[in-house]
Design goal:
The structure holds 2 protein chains of 2 kinds. In chain A, helix 1 runs antiparallel to helix 2 (27-44). By secondary structure, chain A is mainly α. Chain A has helices spanning 2-23, 27-44. The mean pLDDT of chain A is 91. Helix content of chain A is 83%, strand content 0%. By secondary structure, chain B is an alpha/beta fold. Chain B folds into 2 domains: 1-31; 34-370, Zn peptidases (Aminopeptidase), CATH 3.40.630.10. Chain B has helices at residues 2-28, 86-98, 189-203, 232-244, 262-269, 293-298, 302-310, 324-345, 359-365, and strands spanning 43-46, 62-67, 74-78, 100-103, 105-109, 129-134, 137-142, 159-161, 168-170, 208-212, 224-227, 250-253, 273-277, 352-354. In chain B, the strands form 4 sheets. Chain B has an 8-stranded mixed β-sheet, sandwiched between helices. A two-stranded antiparallel ribbon of chain B has the order 4-14. In chain B, a hairpin with a 2-residue loop joins strand 6 (129-134) and strand 7 (137-142). The termini of chain B are far apart. The chains are: A mainly alpha, B alpha/beta. The interface between A and B is medium-sized, with 18 and 20 residues.
């Protein structure tokens, strides 16, 4: 159950970060957000 | 505004490509390398046959049974409890691919913590695999993690409380198979795997059992044989015999209050006589320096040479390096010496094997000579 809660939290944070990613105008910041998003998405998909 | 969309598209493509490459690399770790059992193999089962609770999970693993058909004792050999300790894994593979049982039975599980082979430890820069040359080509072996893959068992508790003793460890140890015995059929994946192993030992009436390991050169139990108190006579006899062959092993009695480990719980919960062997592996040490495949295979580390010379720590490190050939050879000689010692004390129910190389053979010919490709 705890595992599911963590994944749900991660999906929520990824969603918020995804919005920021598309709103961000500075490409350097966008790159940084993008790589953090990548790690979150891999985790949500259970790829490790 | 248009410029913003273009940069977003470019960065998204870069990140997608990175993600695909990373996913493919992660996927490689989930593909088990083929193993080629010797003609002495009688049957192959799965660990889940002993406890169906792990069927279909990443904790399930192959169990190879070598039955001579003649009455005798049963031996259980486990490699890969910690998949980042390659000598234990490779020693069990060499046994699997060369063993001929003459009397009694030998059961081999080369990838005891199967889940641990699917990832590496984070923040350690370990290579994902290493390669060994054989007469018919090169074989790839995975270098895994000390613990169960966090994707298969997550999150870790802050403090891991061992069942049933209540002994407390750091949360990370909840995924350490060698802190999880006797296991729990309703517990975490690691506890279920530990429970399945105890079921195997009990149902197969295992007389002698081995858990092959490695550790950093600064760890005190390097080159030791850890034994349960009920196997003291066998351990001492084997260590003396090995000493005559020029191989030094330290006898270490399994502490009664150190719970969750194979050399303690296998012996406490079943009739088996457990042994755990350790070799010196620089790739696991804190002082190792550059971490690559050469360090796994050749075991040459300038840092450990310097550390040994300072004398500040007890460092088990040979100047020529701690080669994988040497480390696997120690495990194989120790394995066979314990069987011979067992036979001395249990002549009415012996186990006899052939086909296995010993330390000198491994050092002379290398591991690849004893690995097969078909």
């Amino acid at each position: 159950m705890l595992h599911v809660i963590y994944i749900l939290i991660l999906i929520y944070v990824t969603f918020i970060l995804g919005i920021e990613y598309f709103k961000e105008k500075n490409w350097k910041m966008q790159m940084a957000i993008g790589f953090v998003l990548l790690i979150f998405i891999l985790r949500i998909l259970h790829i490790k | 505004m248009k410029k913003h969309y273009i940069s977003t598209a470019i960065i998204t493509i870069v990140i997608l490509i990175t993600g695909i490459i990373a996913s493919l690399e992660f996927h490689k770790m989930h593909v088990p390398e083929p193993l080629y059992p010797s003609e002495g193999l009688s049957s192959k089962r799965m660990l889940s046959d002993y406890f169906p609770g792990i069927r279909g999970t990443n904790g399930d693993t192959e169990v190879y049974i070598f039955d001579s058909g003649k009455p005798g004792a049963t031996v259980f050999l486990a490699g890969g409890t910690h998949p980042n300790e390659p000598a234990g894994y490779i020693a069990s593979v060499v046994v699997l691919e060369n063993l001929i049982p003459e009397r009694g039975r030998v059961i081999v599980i080369p990838r005891l913590n199967n889940s641990g082979f699917t990832c590496t430890d984070p923040m350690e820069a370990f290579p994902q695999s290493f390669h060994i040359k054989t007469d018919k080509g090169v074989r790839r072996f995975r270098f895994g993690s000390r613990a169960t893959n966090p994707v298969h068992q997550w999150p870790d508790p802050l403090v891991y409380s061992h069942k049933p003793s209540g002994q407390q460890y750091s949360g990370l140890e909840s995924r350490n198979l060698n802190r999880s015995y006797p296991g729990d059929p309703n517990g975490s994946l690691t506890e279920k795997v530990a429970y399945a192993i105890l079921q195997l030992i009990e149902k197969e009436n295992v007389d002698i059992s081995y858990d092959l390991h490695e550790a950093a050169p600064e760890i005190p139990i390097i080159n030791a044989i850890v034994y349960h108190e009920k196997a003291e006579d066998i351990a001492m006899y084997a260590i003396l015999e090995l000493e005559f062959e020029g191989l030094k092993y330290t006898p270490e009695l399994s502490p009664k209050n150190f719970h969750g480990l194979s050399h303690r719980e296998w012996g406490d919960y079943t009739e088996t006589r457990p042994f755990l062997m350790e070799t010196s592996s620089p790739v696991q040490g804190r002082l190792r320096g550059k971490t690559n495949e050469e360090l796994i295979l050749d075991g040459v580390s300038k840092n450990y040479k310097i550390a040994k010379e300072t004398g500040a720590l007890r460092i088990v490190y040979r100047d020529e390096g701690e080669q994988l050939n040497h480390r696997v050879g120690r495990h194989l000689s120790g394995f066979q010496a314990i069987i011979r010692a067992y036979n001395v004390f249990h002549g009415d129910n012996p186990v006899e094997i052939s086909g296995l190389p010993a330390y000198n053979d491994l050092v002379e010919h290398g591991i690849g000579y004893y690995l097969h490709n078909d």
